[in-house]
Amino acid sequence: MSHTAHIPSHRKPRRSASKMAIRAGVAGGFLSTIAVAGAAGPANAEPVTETIEMPLLTADAAGAVAQSAEATQQVALDLEAQAQLQAQQDAAAAKAAKAAKKAKAEADREAEAKEKEEAKKRAEAAAKERASRDSERTSLSAYSSTSTPASGSAGAVVSFLKAQLGDAYIMGATGPNAWDCSSLVQAAYRTVGIDLPRVSQDQSLAGTQVGTSNLQVGDILYWGGAGSAYHTGVYIGNGQYLDAANPSKGVVIQDLSGYPASGAVRVL
Asked: Is 4 part of a structural domain of the chain?
């Protein structure tokens, strides 16, 4: 037999098979093995194994995980603290607003009560002054109807005029609490039985014309030309006259030097 002749081998034929086992070690001290087996040939084929080592979890990595957890917990604590602080601030602001509202309401009530009291005092003073004027006017009217002769009395005219001091000026008004210039002059002379025209133009022509340098108490002063006068008043002596001046002044006493008259007429 040739030395190259085929001699049957006693080795078992190699069969195709694969089997893999994966072992992973973990830093916690345990070892787990994952095995995956698969057969591609006969069931009695020899197994082939392969082991793969998994990376270990190092101490640095574990520390980082712990730090991350602590940081997350700290953020949660900070948020809770901020929420509590905000709640306290909101409560304080609400309390302050309520106190301010209450204080304002109290101040408003006090101011209203004070204003009512002052208004009451003003009304009482006005009523008292009005009653005094009415009493004086009644006395003058009674005097003029019983004691004053038809020729009149300069003193009575002036007394009536002074009793109207402080009354309002209203164009067209004829008393008893508001006048214009000619209605006041007309009412004053009516108390002594002299009936004068209603308007300034006609009053400037009543009686006798006299110069402004020779005035007597009770003379009627006028501003503008005789017959075309636009204002009248009554001379009361000492370089002064009394008139219903204008809406801003009302019935007042003024100096002739400040507003010289154009002329005068004498009816007493």
From this structure: no
